[in-house]
Amino acid sequence: MTTKTITVVRDLLATNKQAAAAIREELRGRGILCVNLLSSPGSGKTTLLEALAERFRGRLRMAVIEGDIETERDAERIRAKGVPAWQITTGGACHLEARMIGKVLGDVPAAIDLLFIENVSNLVCPASYEPDERPRFVLLSTPEGDDKPAKYPQAFLSADALIVTKADLLPYVPFDPARAAAEALSIKPSLKVFTVSAVRGAGLDGLAGFLVESLERLRSGRA
Amino acid sequence: MTTKTITVVRDLLATNKQAAAAIREELRGRGILCVNLLSSPGSGKTTLLEALAERFRGRLRMAVIEGDIETERDAERIRAKGVPAWQITTGGACHLEARMIGKVLGDVPAAIDLLFIENVSNLVCPASYEPDERPRFVLLSTPEGDDKPAKYPQAFLSADALIVTKADLLPYVPFDPARAAAEALSIKPSLKVFTVSAVRGAGLDGLAGFLVESLERLRSGRA
User: Is B26 within a domain?
Assistant: First the structure.
């Protein structure tokens, strides 16, 4: 029983890994930087993307693939900003898989600079799955508490950057940004840390700069 | 491949269901009301339990089983309130399973009125799994947004009560309690709705009353 289960899971992961590799290859070939967003529900992934859409308007072309259990709500919010968006509803599945991404990839226009994948909101399951395009961002909103990195180590270990969101709520919640950053860095020392308030537009300069640099590195073949 | 996967998952679920049924039977026989808490990370499950521990001190005897990917942090917070607590760390698993609960159940003192199970923080996976002790509470914190019920329908459909937490943050976040309640009730019309601020002790009377009534019903054999 146990052996059979493990074999099945390993086979499924291998298939997903192959599909993910093909997607990575295709996007790289098209010169598109693919950014994965991972977080708990309600930590502000869509609001951050709305803010980045405003910031990059007329400068960089964005597209977004939204993963959710149900509803088109997030894709509709992104489209309202003039950015093409595809909603994948998983039904009940707790994470996006590469083949789900693969199905919509053909619809993504060729002339795109940044493709964001907003994974199903869940700090556990998506951390262990492909799509594994880079960079991967883990978002932690201030009301969630600064004790989360050690409780969900894989989410932070698998990320390239930590984005502390909802900085505007810092006066009202018990969240120490230095503690959160230190704990995340103890898990992954190379993690870049950005603290932002998407609704106020604060802290977005550093994050936007990081995205532009990553795109330039990809296109110059240095990534 | 697909058939094999489905069979394996069904077998695993069946085993878990049997273990869950045995646990339910045992707790009922001991006259213990078992309450399941389900929510996103950082929505305030542990803070709510701390507040209930204060409220029930000297009146009802509580115990808590904590589920987390890693760390003993939540159990330590509960123990600091003088309430016995057991921490189950799942390593990487996204939900508690009945057999994990079964392993610590023998350590739970006989003289307990309320046993809370704080599931791994995840709005997706735990909703589909036993332990299925009742009542089951789904928590939604105001910073997460009032659009979450339709996005995670199974979590709300499988619950008996919705607890809107962090009501003290309402002046600072775009959350309409009436909208959240209406959406949750459209998914599950029988859902009881409580709005609380655990840090301020607001709204706890109704919730405490509901727990006392549920315990009385269980012990009088009406549940």
Answer: yes
Best CA proximity match to A85, nearest among A124, A139, A45, A122:
A45
Query: Cβ of B153 and A69 within 8 Å?
Result: yes
Number of domains in chain B: 1
Chain A residues within an 8 Å CB radius of B41: 40, 123, 144, 148, 151-152
Contacts of A16 in chain B (CB under 8 A): none
Q: Residue B9: inside a domain, yes or no?
A: no
* Spatial separation of the C-alpha atoms in residues A108 and A86, rounded to whole Å: 9
Q: What mean pLDDT do residues B5-17 have?
A: 65
Nearest by CB: B8 against A5, A69, A123: A5
Q: What tens digit of pLDDT does each residue of A74-127 get?
A: 999 999 999 999 999 998 888 998 889 988 988 998 899 999 999 998 888 888
Instruction: Considering only the beta carbons, identify the residue of A8, A70, A145 that sits closest to B42.
Output: A145
The CATH number covering residue A93 comes to 3.40.50.300
In a domain, B3, yes or no: no
The DSSP code sequence of A129-164 is SS---S-EEEEEEGGG-TTHHHHSHHHHHT-SEEEE
**Residue B32 identity (one-letter amino acid):** I
pTM for this entry:
0.91
Assigned domain for A151 exists? yes
Q: Render pLDDT for A163-203 as a digit per residue (tens, 0 to 9).
A: 999 999 999 999 999 999 999 999 999 999 999 999 999 99
Is pLDDT above 80 for B132? no
Measure the N-to-C terminal CA separation of chain B; round to a whole number of Å: 43
Q: What does the pLDDT read at residue B8?
A: 57
Which domain range does residue A155 map to? 17-219
